[in-house]
Every structure is written in structure tokens, then in C-alpha cells.
Automatic annotation (TrEMBL):
The keyword Iron applies. Pfam families: Fe_hyd_lg_C, Fe_hyd_SSU, Fer2_4, Fer4_7, NADH-G_4Fe-4S_3. This is (2Fe-2S)-binding protein. Residues 1-83 form the 2Fe-2S ferredoxin-type domain. GO terms for molecular function: 4 iron, 4 sulfur cluster binding; ferredoxin hydrogenase activity; iron ion binding. Coiled coil: none annotated. It comes from Rhodovastum atsumiense. Belongs to the complex I 75 kDa subunit family. Keywords: 4Fe-4S, Iron, Iron-sulfur, Metal-binding, Repeat. The keyword Cytoplasm does not apply.
Length: 579
């Protein structure tokens, strides 16, 4: 360790500490913009973290960036000298020279790291603003899921880092030089043409409004106010444990009842649960898997995460036959809500619009896949991310905390089992599938319902599961995050990994930390474990803990689909993939 001075106070610094980390450890705030500790990203490009230093024995001081300069024995660091404050302010003013100035229309207003630093340095005017430079920067509207607005980019390169090092997708690069430097897609492609899989992890780390989802709140307000339209809402397993944070509740609070109440306040006609469809997926996928095992076809990959599907189609088309053909719960719900439900309820299916609330950006992409649009009618009409749903409630003047919890009341498609509830975390689909496959094979329930061996948090986890009967024991793997996924896919292709069933969730943590979840400033994925624990807690409170014991699912098969994997089920609930 070293002795140094920080703003006049004696401090002890670690041997390989930077000025920034040492200052943070001592509670001294230095403004930063490009740096993001959680992903170990310190490119030193924004130059907002300037400090003044004096080396031992020297008269003169120098201005350096705190994030890249190491502490040294005897160094004096000044974070608030007049020169520092003036240079920081100038630096932020330069950053704003070609940045869109219209904060009032930006979705990041009030939750923007650039606004924060501008306030911190006391910037009150912007002498260098150059409208033509802003106008020359591109906005990419090509993707149904993600919008890239380079008029708001501060070139921090966090998105490049997460896409390359975190996800191993590597779709983004630094483009151009000098004043024209910007972030772009590799080979100058558009978002839609590129190898981007729309997982949205880049959105979670972007400090400004440069990256975001395509905002479709207006379409939902249109539907809600159209008397001809019957609005059918569904919301994802993970939404209920991450949404309260937007309204100041602690992370992991279960706000299922408040979400239902909010939807009723919005005058939603029918409120359904994606968890119900997750149970249906287990019936289909479990049956499909047992069939494939009896034909010695292995491995099977899960197919409910659309960013994973995009990744497989884009990067590993040869493995597409290994993917389960079962549609995702979102699409299963949309399909049943436009077939079975109107038949039961005696309503005109043509008037129904299905609106999904998802912690996911890729679900927008999934909903517009040609496979899921029949004669011009989509199974799911609109997908709102968690962020958009929060925006919608704020636009409609609804405060989640002020609402008394309400409950589902649809008698056909809103009940769910504990197995359906845990879909939102990595390993959840696997655990749900094992609970039902064990029952199908043995005619009795698993004694230990909670499968701890599937519940770790490493990027890739493997386990041996005893299914008994003719199947015996199966080898399973679960991965979350696309970098670990790439490892396992390559091992399967090389023949060095033998698995029967592999669950993939593109987002690290699974949907609880999906790319459509709320973004906090200067953090990445700190809430996953709390949200996940709440999902495990919900599982314990359910009357039925296995998908096959969901009474509404049983009724669906009895009254409509006949049995899992029936011809009708196959026609409605299964799909195909294309490279
Ligand atoms: Fe997920 Fe899903 S669990 S992908 O992460 O399978 O978005 O929460 O809705 O469809 O159910 C997201 C979450 C879902 C789907 C479910 C699956
Ligand atoms: Fe969407 Fe969940 Fe897949 Fe992330 S893990 S891309 S949130 S489905």
C-alpha cells in the first residue's frame, strides 16, 4: 500500500489502485461517464473524470484522468480545484456540442448519466452546439426491437464492450475518426441486417438515451381507447419481480397484484398470465423431448428465448434441427388467446389485440416473425418492455404504489403453477420440465420438488438428472449469457459434450435481468439474485407446483387440444426456424 493525499487528507491507497477507485473507496465523488465498474470498462474516452495531481518533490501540477492514472507514493490529488472544475465543465460542454439538446423529448430524461454530469459540473450554457453536426449523425430505425439514436451517443463504448466481451456477439464497432467517430454496426450494416440478436444488453449499459427499444406505448393507448378492440394483456414471469423498482420499491418486490390493478385501471378488457402459457410450453416441450430421447435424438435446446433463436439462426444455422419446435410462452399465449379463448368466451377473435409486457427487447422481434403472423393477423400484436410499461403508467398518471393489489379473474388462461413461475430465471425452464417429465415417465411426482442441483448461477451449469423408467438418467446443461452459450454450442458441434437437454437464456441471469428491464445508472446486473429469489418464493406458495397439475391447462387439453403434441397442438403451438 501507498501513502498519498486526497483533497488535503492523508489516505492509504492500494498498490494497483487508480485514483478513481481510491477516491470512491474514500467517498469522494469524481464524475465519470464512459467508465462502468460492473463490466470492468475503463476506456478513458470521455475525459470527464479529470483531477489535478502533484508528484512528490515537484512544484508543478498536472491534469490527468482519474480512471486511468494509478495512485503513487506521495502523490497529491485534488478533485475540486478551480482548474479541475473548469476543465471538467469544458469537457462536458464539448461532449454536448454534437449531442441532441432536446432533453424534454428523450425517454432517458431524469434518468440520464449525461444530464447528471452536466448538473454536477454546473454547466449552464452550451457555446459550441453545432446543429449541423447533430443532424449528420444517424438514427437507425431498421429493427423492430432496438433503435440506435447516434445524436445522443457519447462514444463511451460500453455497448461495444458488453456486446463483444459480455455476450460474444461482437456486432458493434467504433466507426469513423476524429469528430466523426461514432459507434456503428460492423461492416456499416443497419441494425436489422447486422448480426445483432436484439438481446438488449447494450441498452442496459448505455448511459444516455442513445440506445433503446422501439417505443410502442402510443399503439397500446390507441387500442385501449378503441371501443371495437378487445384488449388482452399478458405479462411475463419476470415482470412482476422487477417492475416495482421503477416506482421506488425494493428490487425483487413481487408486484403481480399491483400490475393487475394497474391494467384494470387502464381499462384492459382481459388480463392473462404468460406463466399459464409457460405451463402449456412444458406440456409440449416435455413431450417433445421424451419423444426425441426415445428416438436417441440429442441434444434438444430450449427455444423460448428469442435472442437465443436469433443467435442460433445467425451464427450456428447447422444446429437449428436441435432446437425444440415448441413456441415460446409469449407466442403460445397469443395463439390460444385468439383461438381457444374467444371460443370459450363467445367473443369475436377479430376484435382481439394481444399486448405483451415483457422484460425483453427481443420479444418485439419475435412477435413480428413471419411464422407468427397468419393471413396478416399476428399472434401477439404489441410487445412493451418493462421500461415502456412504466412509461405507459406514468403517461396515464397511475402510481403503482397507490394501487391495492388485484387478482386474476380469467377462468381459462390465468392460473399458473410454481413451475411456470420460475421460467423467469436461468435454470427455471429446465427445472419445470424435469418436474413434469419425471411424472410422465413414472406416474408419480418427484419427491424433492426444488432441484438445487439446477440452481447455481455459473454461466454454464451441468447436472445429471434421474428420470427413471425407460429413460433413465439424463444429462442436462443450462447457460445464461451468449458467451457461455457459444462455448456449449461449439462443444456440442465438436462432439466433445454429450447432453440430452440444454436450456439457453441469452441474458445473463435469464429474463429477471432481461434487456427490457429497468435501467439504473452506473450499474449492470446487480439485482438478478433478489428478483430470482422472489420467483423461487412464488413457486413455494402455489397450490400446483408442476405444470401438469395446473387445472386450467388440464381443461385446455381436455376441451380443446386433446393431448400434448396432438395434431391440433402441433399445428397451433409449434414452429420452425430459418437461417
Ligand atoms: Fe421470459 Fe418466457 S421466461 S422468455 O425469460 O420461456 O421475456 O420473464 O416471458 O415467452 O414464460 C421473457 C420472462 C417470458 C416467454 C415465459 C419463456
Ligand atoms: Fe429476452 Fe429473456 Fe431471452 Fe433475455 S433471456 S433475450 S429477456 S427471453
Amino acid at each position: 500500500s501507498l501513502r498519498a493525499t486526497l483533497d488535503g487528507a492523508a489516505v492509504i491507497a492500494g498498490a494497483d489502485e487508480t485514483i478513481l477507485t481510491c477516491a470512491r473507496r474514500h467517498g469522494v465523488h469524481i464524475p465519470t461517464l464512459c467508465e462502468l465498474h460492473d463490466i470492468d470498462h475503463t476506456p478513458g474516452t470521455c475525459r470527464v473524470c479529470l483531477v489535478e495531481i502533484r508528484m512528490p518533490g515537484q512544484e508543478r501540477t498536472q491534469i490527468v484522468t482519474a480512471c486511468t492514472t494509478p495512485m503513487q507514493e506521495g502523490i497529491e490529488v485534488m478533485t475540486r480545484s478551480k482548474q479541475v472544475r473548469e476543465m471538467q465543465r469544458l469537457q462536458v460542454e464539448l461532449l454536448l456540442a454534437d449531442h441532441d439538446q432536446d432533453c424534454a423529448t428523450c425517454t432517458r430524461h431524469g434518468n440520464c448519466e449525461l444530464q447528471d454530469v452536466a448538473q454536477f459540473v454546473g454547466l449552464r450554457s452550451n457555446r459550441f452546439f453545432d446543429h449541423d453536426r447533430v443532424a449528420a449523425r444517424p438514427i437507425d430505425f431498421s429493427s423492430p426491437a432496438l433503435i440506435r439514436d447516434m445524436t445522443k451517443c457519447v462514444r463511451c463504448q460500453r455497448c461495444i464492450a458488453i456486446c463483444r466481451d459480455g455476450q460474444g456477439v461482437d456486432a458493434l464497432v467504433v466507426a469513423g475518426t476524429g469528430q466523426e467517430t461514432s459507434v456503428g454496426l460492423r461492416y456499416g450494416l443497419s441494425q436489422a441486417e447486422s448480426t445483432c440478436v436484439t438481446c438488449g444488453q447494450c441498452v442496459l449499459v448505455c448511459p444516455t438515451g442513445a440506445l433503446g427499444e422501439r417505443d410502442e406505448t402510443e399503439r397500446v393507448i390507441d387500442y385501449l381507447n378503441d371501443p371495437e378492440v378487445i384488449t388482452v394483456f399478458q405479462f411475463a414471469p419476470a415482470l412482476r419481480v422487477g417492475f416495482g423498482e421503477e416506482f421506488g420499491l425494493p428490487s425483487g418486490t413481487n408486484v403481480e397484484g399491483q400490475i393487475i390493478a394497474a391494467l384494470r385501471r387502464l381499462r384492459a378488457d382481459i388480463v392473462l398470465d404468460t406463466n399459464f402459457a409457460a405451463d402449456v410450453v412444458i406440456m409440449e416441450e416435455g413431450t417433445e423431448l421424451l419423444r426425441r430421447l426415445s428416438e436417441a435424438r440429442r441434444p434438444t435446446f430450449t427455444s423460448c428465448c428469442p435472442a437465443w433463436i436469433n443467435f442460433a439462426e445467425e451464427h450456428y444455422p447447422d444446429i437449428l434441427p436441435l432446437l425444440s419446435s415448441t413456441k415460446s410462452p409469449q407466442q403460445v399465449l397469443g395463439t390460444i388467446a385468439k383461438t381457444y379463448l374467444p371460443e370459450r368466451m363467445g367473443i369475436d377473435p377479430a376484435r382481439i389485440r394481444v399486448i405483451s409486457l415483457m422484460p425483453c427487447t427481443a420479444k418485439k422481434d419475435e412477435a413480428v416473425r413471419p411464422q407468427f403472423i397468419h393471413d396478416g393477423v399476428p399472434e401477439v400484436d404489441v410487445v412493451l418492455t418493462t421500461r415502456e410499461f412504466a412509461r405507459l403508467l406514468k403517461r396515464e398518471g397511475i402510481d403503482l404504489r397507490a394501487l391495492a393489489p388485484s387478482a386474476f379473474d380469467n377462468p381459462y388462461m390465468s392460473e399458473y403453477s410454481g413451475a411456470g413461475a420460475i421460467f423467469g430465471t436461468t435454470g427455471g425452464v429446465m427445472e419445470a420440465a424435469v418436474r413434469t417429465m419425471f411424472y410422465v415417465v413414472n406416474g408419480r411426482e418427484l419427491e424433492t420438488i426444488e432441484l438445487q442441483q439446477l440452481r447455481g448461477f455459473e454461466g454454464v451449469r451441468t447436472a445429471q438428472v434421474e428420470l427413471g423408467g425407460a429413460i433413465g438418467s439424463v444429462r442436462v446443461a443450462m447457460c445464461h449469457g451468449l458467451k457461455p452459450t457459444r462455448q456449449i454450442v461449439e462443444a456440442v458441434r465438436a462432439g466433445t459434450a454429450e447432453f440430452d437437454f440444454i436450456e439457453v437464456m441469452a441474458c445473463p441471469g435469464g429474463c429477471v435481468d432481461g434487456g427490457g428491464t429497468l435501467r439504473s445508472k452506473k450499474t449492470y446486473l446487480r439485482d438478478a439474485l433478489k428478483r430470482r429469489e422472489t420467483l423461487f418464493g412464488i413457486d413455494r406458495t402455489r397450490k400446483a407446483r408442476q405444470s401438469h397439475n395446473n387445472a386450467q391447462v388440464q381443461a385446455l387439453y381436455r376441451d380443446y387440444l386433446e393431448h400434448p403434441y396432438s395434431e391440433k397442438a402441433h399445428h397451433l403451438l409449434h414452429t420452425y426456424y430459418t437461417d
